[in-house]
Amino acid sequence: MGSRFHDALPSPANVLAHEDGGCALRIVCPYLLLLIYRISTVAERFYWRHQSKFRRVYNGAFEPFVLYGHGAWGPRLGVLAKIRNTLNIIQRRPLVKLTNAYKTTSTAALQVLAGTLPLDLRAREVYDKFRLTTAKQNIVCNGITLRWNSFEGRQNIFDKHPVNWVSIPYGKEDPTQEDIEIYTDGSKLDNQTGTAMVVYYHGTLIHHEIHRLPDYATVYQAELMGIKMALQYVEKSANWHKFHIFTDSLSSLQALANTHCSIPSLWEIKDIYDRIIKNKWLRLHWIKAHVGNIGNEAAEATSS
């Protein structure tokens, strides 16, 4: 954008690590206001006709600078009210620019109009995520204990050369009751999560599998697990060489078609798919749910 952070500006982390939280933020405040002014000046010159661009400036420049080093000063968020109040005061000026509201508008109203979290809650979110994923500590959120070893991290997509990235195509064709047709479904009922897959050969049920997931697992994870189970069945099958897999989870299929997805479980599914298509014919399909399809209804009933 034509502007950069001055090297002499102290980051909030460097100050908060050595001084009282409230006083430290008051020291950082003038530098943050200068940063806001410089970025806003440049952004207004180039983006004044595109108000939505200011949100990108806010998310990409302001918040990261304010929250930098949260691992050092994050523990004081729950202790010192001064930090929480000062963070929201700092947030006020960029929100006025973001919303074009009157300067007399309250900070709480500005946060609602801008659709952004209060900065103290955003800081708490970033710090808790740091504890969970980087420091590998369990955290308690609203009375619920989140365990770091149950958290699904991110896969570095550049562990593989881009030439070897896999995109799994899918279609929207209806079942024909020919060859092997596999239906998968995941569900969450009474805080219990499960997934299932059923196998039909020319319209006749010949096999089914059920898998119970941890209670904290989501329906999306259950849907992916069902697809993975179907692929493992196809990989192990020695009697047939042509397979169709049907699922009503469009989001899962879209994620599998995306080459830049960094979720480890998706990479595992793609690795299985890549091995299968070297020797067998396989096609994934999306079908509508609750339209009377026998295979889909059977998979849903089994997973529940």
From TrEMBL:
Superkingdom per UniProt: Eukaryota
GO molecular function term, any single one: nucleic acid binding
InterPro entries to which the protein is assigned, alphabetical: RNaseH-like_sf, RNaseH_domain, RNaseH_sf
Residue ranges of every copy of the RNase H type-1 domain listed in the record: 176-304
Membrane-traversing stretches: none
Protein name (database record): RNase H type-1 domain-containing protein
Annotated source species: Araneus ventricosus (Orbweaver spider)
